Amino acid sequence: MIDRDATNPQVEALIGRLGTGRRYAEYDLDEAERRMAVRQAARSRCSNPSCALAPPPTTAFSRPQWTRPALDGQYALEQAWWDLKAICTLVVGATDAAPVLEHFIQAHYADGPGARILACLLHLTGDRDGARWWWQFAAGAGDNTAGYCLLLDHVRRGELHDARFWGRQLTSSGFAPEQWGSRSDAPVVVEDLPDRVSPHITKKYHPALGRIPLPELSLVPALQELASADASTH
Fold this sequence. Notes:
Blueprint lengths: L8 H7 L13 H15 L15 H4 L14 H16 L4 H10 L5 H13 L3 H13 L3 H13 L3 H14 L19 H5 L3 E6 L3 E6 L3 H14 L2
Antiparallel strand pairs: 1-2
Helix pairs in contact: 4-6, 4-8, 5-6, 5-11, 6-7, 7-8, 8-9
């Protein structure tokens, strides 16, 4: 339930720490991703019309090379789409993800690494705006991985000006996505992930920013369960 009248000091305190704002409110991301899937299907020479809306072949996801932060602004939309999914699964599947998220919640949403984990969970459940909000917060707090997620998110939305901004920031800080390993090692997202995560998210309303997803402490054991399920498949 969204409380549209309540004021939340914690949320107010976080707003000023966002790294960037939403500059493309009218951009139709769903339509852009549909076009991307159609192009991928065409390159795969798919003869079945229904496959135009299906994920690309696994080979597109298993290439080990990450999108580089500095490419003179020359980024590949489709690779960024898959790289963002890959790094998000690696972030939420990290061995310390649950305790870091627990600290984040207990500290009243006040640290970058926990915000990055929450953002990646939100992205994998389809809450793109919520994910971007928390990536911006985490990047504003100095989390380079969140900045990399923002770079990829801007590229896949076609927002290359903002992507270049984060590319420069990451290059100057010496960030390398390889610190998360190979993108081909990213775990598979379970189909019922939204059902496992959404019940543990409360959305607060802010008059300027809209709905802000805030995690409840019950999300921590849910994340531990997801990590255990992933470990059992390897």
